[in-house]
Structure formats: C-alpha cells, structure tokens
Amino acid sequence: MRFLAIDSATLSLSLALLEDQTLISEITTNTKIKHSTQLLPLVQTMMETVAWRPEDLEGVIVSKGPGSYTGLRIGVTVAKVLASTLGIPLYSVPSLLALAANVRAQKALVLPFFDARRQTVFAAAYLKDGQAWTALEEVKHGAFSDCLAAWEDRLDDYDQVYFISPDLASYEEALAPILFRHDHCHLAAPEDRLIYAHKMVQLPLTLEDVDTFLPDYAKLAEAEENWREKNPGHDGETYVERAD
Questions:
Q1: Cα distance between the two ends of the chain
Q2: How far apart are the C-alpha atoms of 168 and 30, rounded to whole Å?
Q3: Beta bridge partners of 140
Q4: Which positions fall inside the Gcp-like domain (predicted)?
Q5: 220: which of 24, 79, 229, 231 lies 20 to 30 Å off by Cα?
C-alpha cells in the first residue's frame, strides 16, 4: 500500500511517502514557519518529485496528539480531507509513541515528553521489546517535577531507560540528578529528538472514522480553560456545541 504519513504535533513538521514499509520520500523541517503554510506545498513537492498522484495514495497516517493545539488541528484536518476526498483509510498514531520509536535499544523503558509551557509537559511511558510496544500509563499533562517523581520509582525495574523529547535541552538540568543516580538512564541523541513521519508506519495503527476523528489534545484548549474559570460549576460541560 502507498501511504502518506503526517506529523505536525510539535515545532517540527515531518511528511513521508511510503510503499508498504519502504520509505520513498521524506521531508522534515524544524523551524518556526507555520505548519499551515508549509504542509500542503511540501506534500505536493514530494509527490511531484517521485511522480505520485494523490489518486495513487491508499492510506493516510497522522499523529493524533498530544502536542501543539494548532499544529495538531492542521495535520489532522489535512489528513481527514485527503482521506475523505480520495476515499481511502485514515490511520492514527499517538504522537509520543511516534517520538519513542526513535529509540534504537532492543528492550527499554522509553519516557517521551513534549514541553507544554510553564514547566508542564505532555508525557507517557512505553515499554519497548523488539518491535512490540506496550503503553505503561495513559498520556498525561502535568508538572515536569511530578512526572519525574512518578518515573523515578520505576527506573530500577528496567535495564535501560531513555528520556526523549524535542525539548530535552530545556530539561537537562532537572534530569541531571536522575542521570547521576541511575547510570542505566540515558538522554536520546540529538538527532533522535524529532518525530520522523516514516517511523509511524512501523507502529500499531488505529483505523479512524474520518467523520468523527479528532486530535487527542490531552488538555483543554486555553480558551476553554479560561471559560471554565469564569463559569464555575460547569466542569462536566463544554463551551463548544456541535452543529450537525
């Protein structure tokens, strides 16, 4: 099958064309240029370069979050429009798992995270065993210090542990005591700290309903958080109403 894979969950943007699990073409950027201006032109450039037409695609894969609210919305919207227009399946992969896939160790505890501002992160924990991945906890959003405290209790249960994030440089000072106390804990290499779209096809894919699929933001949008602060007693409600 011929796939287009899209990741726009963070500052970086990665797009790949694959035939089954063979990489045909990939473009990964890591700039402050908005994904909304890059994504479609880069897809067109890739397809023209390898002489593929949109009609040649047989599936679309997209990272579903968590991550940047705007970035996720752009990537998922493009993936849904392509899947719907072309009448092809839409698959998703958790963004943190797509990042964790860069770890090369055969067996390890992998702890991926994204900065979520104000010393909070989106974080997860995965056990890698060969090509198999097991989620050890739900994706969470919270203070990085709380994540570290929870993680440290389990570090000695594994022979190899990897921390991986595009934002590792901002958290190395906080991680230093853990790395000092646990010599089997490692930081991912700099070249492995971005999501690469071609990795997603190697991971468990979830077939999505194109009409109802939404990104996994793992937290409320800032506008909704502000609305709830001003409207106490409505925690179980949403300020957004769906119009069919």
A1: 34
A2: 15
A3: 123
A4: 26-137
A5: 79
